[in-house]
Amino acid sequence: xxxxxxRVVVTGAGKGIGRATALMLARRGAKVVALTRSAADLETLxxxxxxxxxxxxxxxxxxxxxxxxxxMPADLLVNCAGTTELQSFLDTTVEAFxxxxxxxxxxxxxxxxxxxxxxxAKGAKGAVVNVxxxxxxxxxxxxxxxxxxxxxxxxxxxxxxKELAPQGIRVNGVHPTVTLTPMAVKAxxxxxxxxxMMTRIPVGRFAEPDDVAEVILFLLSDESAMVNGLSMPVxxxxxxx
Length: 241
Ligand code: NDP
Known about the structure:
By secondary structure, the protein is α/β, with parallel strands linked by helices. It is built from eight helices and seven strands; from the N terminus they run E-H-E-H-E-H-E-H-E-H-E-H-H-H-E. The chain has a single domain (7-234), classed as NAD(P)-binding Rossmann-like Domain (Rossmann fold), CATH 3.40.50. 46% of the residues lie in helices and 15% in strands. Helix 1 links the parallel strand 1 (7-11) and strand 2. The longest helix has 29 residues, at 94-122. NADPH dihydro-nicotinamide-adenine-dinucleotide phosphate (NDP) binds at residues 12, 14-18, 36-38, 41, 56-59, 80-83, 103, 131, 133, 176, 178-179, 181-184. InterPro entries: KR_dom, L-xylulose/Carbonyl_redctase, NAD(P)-bd_dom_sf, Sc_DH/Rdtase_CS, SDR_fam.
C-alpha cells in the first residue's frame, strides 16, 4: 500500500497506535498531519517523519474544531486519539463519563465533519478510519464510560458510512483488543486481569501497535474500495472465543 502524495490527518499520533500509524504512513510516502496533546510527542514525531504538528486538547470541542480546520485539506483521516478511566460501574463519575465521551466519541465526529465538508466541497473522494475497541462489543468490568464511548463512536461510524459513501467517502472502524501501548499499561497492568483477557485470545498474545496500524492503512487504501461501514476486530479471535 503506497500513500505517496497523500496528506493524512492522524489524531492521537503522539503515542501508541496513533504514533505507529503515523510512522507507517510516513514510511509509505504520506504527509502526516499529527493532531495530539503533548508538545514533546509532536516534536519527536516531527523530527522522525517531517510531519505537520497541531497541539490540541480534544476534550475541548471548540479547540478541536479550530484544530481540525487548520489541519485541512486532507486526503484521508484516522481518528485514533482516545483515553480511559478505570472505575467500577457504581463508582463511575459523571466527570469521567463526560470526558471519555468528549475525547472518544465527540472529537472524532467534529474532526470528521471538518474533513468531510472539505472533501465534499472539492468533489474529492476520501476514507476515514475511526479507532474503536472490542470494548464497544462487550462489557469489560471497570470500563463503563469507555465501553459506552466506543459503542457511541460505532454509532457515529455507521451513520457516517451511510451518509458519506454516496459522496465518495468510505468510513470504517477498527476494534483492537489489548494493544501494548501506554494506555494498555494503564488499563491492564493487573496481571490477574491481563491473564484472564489473554486466555480469551486464540492467537495467544496481545496486539502490537503495528498489528493495528496495518489494518488501519488497509482500510484507508484503495485496496479496500468496496469496504464501508465495517467494524473490524483486530483481536486475534477474541470476539469468537
Ligand atoms: P495511548 O494512550 O498510547 O495514546 C493515545 C494518544 O491519544 C496519545 O498521543 C494521547 O496524547 C492522545 N490523546 C488522548 N487524549 C487526548 C486529548 N484529550 N487531546 C488530544 N490528544 C489526546 O493510547 P493507545 O494508542 O493505546 O490507543 C489509541 C486508540 O486505540 C484509542 O482510541 C484507544 O481507545 C484505542 N484502543 C486501544 C487499545 C489498547 O489496548 N491500547 C485497545 C482498543 C482500543 P497524550 O498522551 O498527550 O494525552
